[in-house]
Amino acid sequence: MKNMKKVALALCATMGLGGCGDLTVPDLNNPSLESFQETPTRTAVINASTGLLIGTRAGVTNQNGYVALMGVLGRESLVLDSADPRYVGEMLAGPALNGGSPAFGGNFWDNPYANIRNANTLLNALAKVEGVTEAEKNAIRGFAKTIQALDFLVIVNTRDTNGAPIDVNRPFGSALAPIESKEKVLAHIATLLDEAKAHLEAGGTEFPFPMGSGFRDFEPRTDGKVITITVPNFIKVNRAIKARVDVYRELWEEALVDLDESFLDIRAPLDLGVFHAYGTGSGDVKNTLNGPNIFANPILLEDAKQPDGSLDARVERKVKNSENPGELPGVIEKYSKAFAQYTADTASIPIIRNEELILLRAEANIRLERYEAAMDDINFIREESGGQAEIPEVLEGDLAINELLYQRRFSLLMEGGHRWIDMRRYGKLDALKREDPPGMSFNVHPRFPIPTTEMIGR
Questions:
Q1: Is residue 202 exposed (0-12), middle (13-18) or buried (19+ Cβ within 10 Å)?
Q2: Fold of 1-59+108-263
Q3: Full-model pTM
């Protein structure tokens, strides 16, 4: 993109997903970008493949990262940092998000596009590398394009109808790629995922590189060891992500087909899935969502109350008392609740889980007016995850949609902006205003702007 003057291709240590070098400057430990493009080696290609995992998790766990800021916009969370009032002043109180602020409005752009370019550089290198079998090349191609799809999803989830460039596999210095519509970006993501699936089907059984603890194999092991996910099982992950994209595109029948080919399993743990992994080792990245400035919106407890006075079990699990309550200027009551699911620096963050897949199937069936099938899945999630009683009647129309949105709200709480995205998809963003603090009337921002630096000269 315009403001990217360098490529930091992640040819880095594969153990622990550790730190990596910038290939635009001499680095005795890593090859130059030019040598990687012209004479790639097996080792460099393998390391670059693993490096894509590092790139796709960049900016996810920060206090001003994807999960936290999307949570603020969706009224799941509130960041109260006395040293930086922009979490309230810009993310909530401002008239619009500022595309000139790389941390509050202009973010979630450079990092995903850098990783998309890294993947393109890797894909281009596969045509020249020796010592890598054709099956291994296909496994790498399928993996890289799936990661690109995830990065494009971050971009379109944040920019929505502002759109984004998709034809970005261009040499530096060439003309800028045009900004395409949201619909074209989502279609491009779907194409990437379908191309990736075809590659993976020709990719053998095992990936030629380690993928970290967040991508564990789905097959049970009696020895308790964790092994890298197999290529056939990664196809199921690919289809799971495609099903999410299908739902965003309102392709309901296609979503059901992809869900059938995913790892959706009503008999399996709801946490079955793939995750961004974090660690405390040298060169690794910590999960900082357990920081002292991130608070749960009090409305969560109010809306999670059941008829008998108990709380939805998901809120019981995911919300806890904060050791150091936060203060919001102009609000007398202190914020005393925090999130419990990321208590450790090494806690993983979901990319996609079985629980979401079950709810995606319910949504597709609702929109196809197959209400009984949808209620089977909704009631399953109500009981298994929410600790709620089954709804005896079959809900239809808006009643079914509202129940679905309620279940998605608490099942996917603070996992990556699902609440904000869902309310936007269904034209209900204004309803989030009731979740503001008493006496406050914040703005509900519908999308992030394209960064100002990206728009100069267009």
A1: middle
A2: 1.25.40
A3: 0.93
